[in-house]
Amino acid sequence: MSSASIRIDALYKDFTTHGSGSTWRALENVNLRVAPGEFVTILGPSGCGKSTLLNALSGLDADYQGRVAIERNGVLDEKARVAYLFQEPRLLQWLTVRRNVEFALDAVGFPKSEWADRADKWINLVGLKGFADFYPLQLSGGMQQRAAIARAFAIEPEVLLMDEPFSALDELTARRMRQELLSLWEADRRTVLFVTHNSLEAVYLSDRILIMKKGPGSHVCDEVVLAHLQRPRIYEDPAQVESQKDVLQRLIRHVS
Ligand SMILES: Nc1ncnc2c1ncn2[C@@H]1O[C@H](COP(=O)(O)OP(=O)(O)O)[C@@H](O)[C@H]1O
Ligand SMILES: [Mg+2]
Predict the structure, then answer these.
(1) Ligand 1 centroid vs 115 CA: distance in angstroms?
(2) How far is the CA of 251 from the centre of ligand 1 (A)?
């Protein structure tokens, strides 16, 4: 199990529109924790600030107020390995699937002698056996997203940040990918902060759901703990269907 945890205290983020100079408060006093090995999902409507939050947490955006941290035993750990998976695969188009994974392995310092084995292992695990030497544009959108997942897991991240990674896929492919994500996650329980606008997906995946309301001044306004749902999860399980209804109702209440 990952020993890294996520902690966000009093996060504020303002966007200033150049030209007009007007300010949009995207995030206002966001506070959250993700325990080591926990799968937490942020659920909220489009535009509520989910990507803004992950950008701050990942370090892509350093222009915010408040504190975001990956911690180990309650102490800031700046060296913790974090993988960030986006809604689009964001593969390097001029490199094959294998080279895309190896590029990430190189970037985090794995020795070259291990690249081929590690890349093959994860390419096979995400179901792309036989496609390692294909270029991204030779693959379907779903296959490209699998390659991006292989790249994310291959670096053995302690923390996974996932921004609506399945929302561009058709529902059947998305279901298969969620199932595969959970089996990869259950093998070694990395700490996951997942983001979605889909309440069904949130209930299927998570230990805990944090609901964000629409901005301006968006923040976590509700929490649903799903510890009572057994894994592996089944969409039709009555307890899970009950939770889906509950979460959807809360979401509607906070959005309207
Ligand atoms: N670069 C930017 N400049 C100005 N406003 C932005 C920028 N990025 C996001 N926003 C605004 O911040 C809010 C949150 O956006 P975002 O985090 O992308 O939402 P989500 O990921 O939940 O759909 C939205 O109202 C969006 O218009
Ligand atoms: Mg977004």
Answers:
(1) 37
(2) 19
Q: Is residue 187 part of a domain?
A: no
Range of the domain at 94: 81-157
Residue 146 has pLDDT above 90, yes or no: yes
Give me the mean pLDDT over the 135-149 stretch: 95
Asked whether the predicted pLDDT for residue 17 surpasses 80, the reply is yes
Q: How many domains does the chain have?
A: 2
* pLDDT grade for 180, boundaries at 50, 70 and 90: confident
- Estimate to the nearest angstrom the gap between the alpha carbon of 10 and the chain centroid: 21
Two tokens at 143?
């296959």
Verify that 99 and 146 share a domain, yes or no. Answer: yes
Query: Quick check: is 86 in a domain?
Result: yes
DSSP label of 134 = S
pLDDT per residue as tens digits for the range 231-243 = 999 999 999 999 9
**252 Cβ contact list (under 8 Å, min separation 6):** none
Q: CATH code at 253?
A: 3.40.50.300
